[in-house]
Structure formats: structure tokens, C-alpha cells
Please model this.
Amino acid sequence: MKFLTLAFFLALALPLAAQEGVAPHAEAPKAAEKEVFYGRRLEPRRGVLHGIGQSDDIFAEYYAQIGATKPALLMTYVSLSRADKTKYFENLRAQLAKYDSFVIPQIGVGLGKAQEVVDGKHDAGIESLCIGLKSLNRPAFVRIGYEFNGEWNNLQPEPFKAAWIRVVKALRAHGLNDVATVWCYAPEGMHKNYMDYFPGEEWVDWWAIDLFSPEHFTVGDTHLFLKDAAKGRFPVMIGESTPRWVGVDRGEKSWRTWFARYFKLIRSYPQIKSFCYITYDWAAKWKPGSTLADWGDARVWQDPIVWQKWRAEMQNPLYLHASTEAQTRAALGLKPPAPQNPTP
Model:
């Protein structure tokens, strides 16, 4: 599917509830209930990274309106089959540079035909991806072949795993130690045996799941996936999410039907370490009768009740927001940024 402010001190010595300017949240879980840490790449020791997508203008509008709790992750997409990604990464660098906080990209990498990747037909695209990631000079999450089990992607387990490993070997050969690989499952996909697609622990940093309809919060495979991630000691990212067929325009009913269940799920599973929400007007962007036209308006600021509740939720010290580069790196267990040479 296409398309760290004060809270980052959570990673430092200050206790959760003592962050200056962050009010306690009545529904916040006890710290002990949310503190799991597996030591994976770009995993925060505690807290949940706040991500938004999935277009430049939408991210910018949300960033401007949300106030102090700026999103830490920016969602974006690129296809592996695109041999030259120079322009894509030029645009992404320019987009990231617009913000006064240190924002991290969460990149959905479309795999295309996995066997072609295995056969080396897209090695130029892999190389361009690696060069572009290095040019960002910041951490990044990459969801390679996201929604691998969805029939719309037509990915078979063995070619998918081999293609995944080929991409990750290239990332490592380029020394991209601050790039986390994210293995992303779709609960509505027909292939439910997700472990058939698992390329191996040594090749995966995070697990991810994409959640859209309200039933995704209650179906058995969502909960089984989250539990299996914990058994394997993997942090989980909600890679994509939006209130499909619900929208925001029904106010309190929209909140109860989708948003309250969404945040309850996040609080219920301490292995969830990031969420990425698509705040997008699906109805306006797609022609009537098309597949996505009835998804509704997911822009949280468009309804006053949803917006007030959303902003209150983001004040929960559970969430990690955009901050300075040094604070972000500290929260993610990375080395401090290299000192800049003074201008002569």
C-alpha cells in the first residue's frame, strides 16, 4: 500500500513522567508494562516512535499543526526496479532539510518481481538505493517488499526471501549500519503463514504490520504476529495505518470505532516501538468507484473532536517525537553526530 521533542529524553537518565512540559496521561500504562528492549538496530530503549505520511505536503501540514509533538518518522516510497534513484534521494534530502527537527525517513521499498531481483536484474537499483541512503547522513528504516504476503504483490516465499537477502547484503557491504531493515506483514493478505516468508533472523532488524480496518485490531493473526515478534525478540513497527472506511468526520464515533482501538493495541503490546499513520484524504484523491475512494478522510485535524483527542494522545510520554540529532541518536542507541569543522 502506497501512497524527538522533549519525549526523546526518555532515552536519557530522566524518568518517564518527569519530562519538562510533558503532562502525565491518564491512560498511560505503568512504565514496567511498556519497557521491553531487544537491542535491535534503531530500537529505542523505551517508548514508541511517532510517524506520519505519506506525502510531502501532508507531512508538512501535519508538522505545522501538531505543535510541540512533531513526528519523528516521515513515510516515503521508492521502487527497487527504478535503476537511478538520484532524483528521488535529492527530493528526500530537500524534504528532510525543511524541518527544524531531526526527522528520520521510513522508506517503503517496492520489490517488484522478486525473481528478477534474485537474478541480478535490479542490481543497479539496489546500488542506487544504497548510495542514496548513504547520502542522507541520517538513520533510516527500510520496509523491503512491504506487505509481502498480500496477493496484490504476487510475491512467493522462496524468491522473496532470496531477494530480501540480496538487498540486505548490499546494504551491509556499503556499511549502512544506521539503516534498519523492516519485515512487513499485511493481516488482510491471503497467505497467513507469514513465517514462510521470513528470511532469517540475521537479515531482519524489525518486524512490521500494516493496519487499516477496525477488525485488524482484533483478528487472530494480528495478535499472533505480535506475540511471535516478542518470542523472536523483535521490535514491531506499525508500518502503515489509516482509518479505512471510518475516517475522522464522525467525531466521537470515529474515535471510538478506530482510534481508541488503535492506541489500545499499541499500549497492550510493549514490543510495538513505532507507529506510522497516514493522514490523508482518500476520498478527495481517488475517483469515485476506484478501490480507495471510499476510505474516507483520515486527516486528523479535520474534525475538532478527533484532533483534540489525537493531540492529547501525543502528549502521552509513551511516544517519541522529533528532536535534535544528538537526542535522536542517543534515544536510538547510536553514536553522537560527528563534530563539524569550524569555518575558517
